[in-house]
Amino acid sequence: MAAYLLRRLLEVVLILFGVSVITYLLLYLLPADPVRQIAGRSASQETVESIRRQLGLDLPVYQQYWRYLTGLLHGDLGRSYIQRSEVSALIAGRLPASLQLMVAGILAELVLGLSMGIYSALHRNSSTDNALMVIAFIAVSAPQFVVGILLLYVFAVKLGWFPIGGYGDLRHVILPALTLGIMGAGWYSRMMRSSMLNVLEQDFIRTARAKGLSRFRVIARHAVPNALLPVIAMIGFDIGIFMSGIVVVESVFGWPGIGQLTWQAIQRVDIPIIMGVTLIAAFFIVMGNLLADIVALFMDPRIKLK
Amino acid sequence: MTILRAVLRRKLALFGLVVIVLAVLAALLAPWIAPADPYRQFFDGLTLQGAPLPPGGDFILGTDLLGRDLLSRLIHGARTSLVIGVAANGIAVMIGSLIGITAGFFRGLPGALLMRFTDLMMAFPALLLAIVLAAIFKPSLWIVAMVIALVNWVQVARIMYTETVSLAERDFIAAGVSLGASRARLLFRHIAPHLLPSVIVFGTLGISTTVLLEATLSYLGIGVQPPTPSWGNIIFENQTYFASAPWLVFFPGLAIIILALAFNLVGDALREILDPTMKGKF
User: Fold this and answer.
1) With an 8 Å Cβ cutoff, is B240 touching chain A?
2) Which DSSP string corresponds to B38-55?
3) Which residue among A49, A197, A225, B234 is least enclosed by CB atoms within 10 Å?
């Protein structure tokens, strides 16, 4: 087990290294010149060149990357070109808002998805089951920006129940969290339904019924916990989807998280921020996948370590 | 044919198929069935105060902020969604299958390297990668399709790899080997036919993901560029006024959802039909 973990962690490091190389090369290929963005349109050629030297952007790309990598190993993500601040400080400042949104989003998708899935499985092939599965299909077919704008229109503009975007108390987080979670709720409801149907056919459920346990007890104590495990194990994979999702959701709702930070950085060619966010996101994604694998390992001892 | 008949027997899949056929017809016949030129700014397409016209009246679905006919822009937008959806997903499935099957069939060092590269690509947040790629190349219809393909092949590669590896360990392959079949014969006559169902399923389901990603990129302003109409960029252009002109978000949004839903329904039905062991699973 320890050897397996060590090998997987080594893989994480290698993947992050690969991500940093690819991202660096891609950003180097950007046609927009970051120095022009910093200096402004009216700056003289000398100013532009002196800024270029100052940032080390006149060096060949492998030297630039080497400088970046050595900084990275010392925990330094560099300084933003536009906002005169450390990238790590900028990300750290925005991370709490994004994490709050993501946790709320996961809660939303689990509560909606799991309850829909359990209900559907218990009323298999009823008209409600069919309707719920159609809803699940619609949920996975709806782009987040459309869901977000429509939720804003109905619940903020027309009904006035929630504020129109912004960040603050619980009322601000509900619509963005729903927007982020609806697509996942669709997936989870389908997974939970099939997992429940699978468990309900097992012998131990028949045994529990034969013992004379109440229907509620059989479902709540025996069926649901067992059906839940393989579904919960998927949460690790959500992180990648959410890392993409927050860019859109934060932009629709004006949520001050790393999604917005990235989006602004891309528009202003603020390369250190794009680099930093990509690395942080990749770190979360790889750790999420690792977590999902480890959870699967603990749940099912039959999975052999390679 | 039997597959088509099986699809037609399922109500939801039939609905999806009808939607897809209608969307394809709309895209092909756009210049003839659209009530107006999608680029024309009508003088009477705005109110006296310069606001867009609501649905009903001369313009069936209303007009946009520039006084253009929304229905005509939606019909022409179907071209964008379908061309990108089919092309980008086709390329993604091709790249993914090629890499996944090669890695699974040949194993060894080349296989390991290909799969490590796939793992690496999985670590990128898809949208972020697409945004950076879209910023590098100047967005046009085909560039957007390429960008989406470059992001979406990864999942296909993983699944094709797993399937190829498990097929290669089956008895009939061992039998083929002992009968002296060449590697090419094993690959094309014995393994490839078993992978075809997955290719068909991904070829359909993936279009839904692609349509959504194109819409999202266009909504962020880095996909298909205005004035070329795309359902995503119609919302991008008009979103600031969604509170007073909600139809400019509602109708294009509905179009995206229905088209993505259609491909999901048909793809899901195909999966059930082609792989009965997956029945009832997600």
Assistant:
1) no
2) TT---GGGB-TTSPBPPS
3) A225
Kindly report the CATH number assigned to the domain that includes residue B207.
1.10.3720.10
Closest-CA distance, A75 to chain B, in angstroms, reads: 20
Residues 8 through 27 of chain A touching chain B, CB cutoff 8 Å = 11, 14-16, 18-19, 22-23, 26-27
State whether residue B250 sits within 8 Å of chain A by CB. yes
The Cα angle at residue A74 between residues A69 and A80, in degrees rounded to 5: 70
Task: Provide φ and ψ at B51, rounded to 5°.
Answer: -90, 155
- Gap between the Cα atoms of B191 and B199, Å rounded: 13
* Residue B241 contacts residue B63 (beta carbons within 8 Å): no
Q: pLDDT tens across A64-100, in order?
A: 888 888 888 888 888 888 888 888 899 999 999 999 9
Please identify which residue in the block is written with the tokens 């959701």: A249
> Which of A191, A194, A247 lies closest to B128 in CB terms?
A247
What is the number of domains present in chain B?
1
Q: What is the pLDDT of residue B280?
A: 43
Take residue B217 and report the two structure tokens written for it: 């990129």
Residue B1 lies in a domain: no
Domain that holds residue B99: 70-278
| CATH 1.10.3720.10 domain residues, chain A | 95-299
CA distance B136 to chain A (A): 5
A11 CB-near residues (< 8 Å, 6+ apart): B119
pTM over 0.80: yes
For residue B155, CA distances in Å to A170, A245, B91, B149, B202 come to 36, 18, 13, 11, 10
Residue B199, number of CB atoms within 10 A of its CB = 17
Contact B42/B63 with Cβ under 8 angstroms? yes
CB B19 within 8 A of CB B258: yes
At the topology level, CATH places domain A95-299 in MetI-like fold (1.10.3720)
CB-based contact A248 B220, cutoff 8 Å: yes
ipTM of this predicted structure: 0.87
